[in-house]
Specification:
The protein is mainly alpha-helical and 347 residues long. It is built from 14 helices and no strands.
């Protein structure tokens, strides 16, 4: 242990790669994510499936591209004079902020072998089973870590940069949110139109509330993590929530064009609301009251807009108690999540 600690202390500083490299990782991660969503689209339509399909090919080739882009600096930057067993030399070659992305490549590689083995033994999953499969969970963790690379790298650079400079980090967060919403597709705003239709049975209402809790926690968590690191410029939430909503709705693709467009606009408008809240409240760790208000208002207003569109546009038999309670509970979830990300300010 002492030898390893000494080696780390003597290792040169990790290299800082520029925003151009972040864009390469974003492009590769987009390829990976597009393959994932294409695979989800195929599962949703019940198309004939196996491990050897074109959508799996897109998914895994996207991973290959990500692995090459993320791994290249590690291989090229490693000291040629160091032993292949020199851990410190390998660590020193990892670009700043991409340590977890490297781990993600390793986890995804293991998950790919696991997934092929799992399909061979137990067959292909359908419907919600595809989201719960252990092999898919391993792939999800690897993909999320890969997608997080540009965001983490941006946190290692000086603060105070403009929107364009932090755009790869913002897109990285959108991809990360996309991984979370994809694998929680069984609940949330994209599992069905919450609030529309006939009055639901209690079991349906409970499932809807699960989706409200999950989605509210995810969007507030993503927003506050970015906010704490100075990576939430005006327009960021519009991009993050809008891109996520459009991608998820296109992947589902089962509803009418009118319905799809309506809820794409809800996602985009929800992001605009979030950006306006950040602009007006200027929430921060030093302005805790404003931060708590932001954490409450973002999910509450998102769901209020969502339910308004569902009720007015598609009709509803849901009670006023359920509809208003959903909005209130979304705000409560956001409030609680804010304490996980930003404590009570005590030192």
């Amino acid at each position: 242990m002492a030898t390893l600690a000494n080696a780390r202390a003597q290792a040169p500083a990790v290299p800082q790669l520029g925003i151009g490299y972040d864009w390469l990782v974003v492009a590769a991660a987009f390829w990976l994510g597009a393959g994932l969503y294409w695979d989800g689209w195929a599962h949703g339509y019940g198309l004939p499936d196996s491990f050897w399909t074109i959508w799996h090919a897109a998914f895994y080739s996207g991973f290959a591209a990500s692995a090459v882009v993320i791994g290249a600096p590690l291989i090229l930057g490693r000291s040629r004079t160091a032993s292949w067993r020199d851990i410190a030399a390998w660590r020193a070659a990892i670009p700043a902020g991409y340590e977890r992305a490297i781990l993600g490549v390793a986890i995804f590689t293991v998950g790919g072998v696991f997934d092929m083995t799992w399909h061979t033994i137990f067959g292909i999953e359908f419907s919600t089973d595809a989201l719960l499969s252990p092999s898919h969970m391993v792939l999800a963790i690897g993909a999320a870590l890969i997608a997080s690379g540009p965001f983490v790298a941006a946190t290692k650079r000086p603060a105070g940069r403009g929107f364009v400079a932090v755009l790869p980090a913002v897109i990285s967060l959108a991809f990360l949110l996309g991984a979370f919403t994809f694998f929680t597709l069984f609940a949330g705003p994209y599992s069905g139109i919450i609030g529309a239709g006939a009055r639901p049975a209690d079991s349906v209402l409970v499932r809807a509330l699960l989706g409200v809790y999950l989605f509210s926690a995810l969007i507030v968590g993503v927003a506050l993590v970015a906010l704490r690191r100075g990576l939430l410029p005006f327009g960021a939430l519009t991009l993050i929530l809008g891109l996520n909503g459009v991608a998820m709705i296109l992947m589902r693709g089962h509803a009418s064009i009118e319905t799809q467009i309506s809820f794409m606009l809800v996602a985009i408008a929800g992001g605009v609301i979030g950006d306006l809240l950040v602009w007006r409240l200027r929430p921060s760790a030093e302005r805790l009251v404003q931060l708590r208000l932001f954490a409450i208002a973002l999910p509450a207003l998102y769901w209020a807009l969502y339910l308004a569109v569902a009720v007015i546009g598609f009709g509803s038999g849901w009670t006023v108690h359920a509809l208003t309670g959903i909005v209130v509970q979304a705000g409560i979830v956001g409030f609680l999540v804010s304490y996980l990300v930003v404590g009570d300010g005590r030192t």
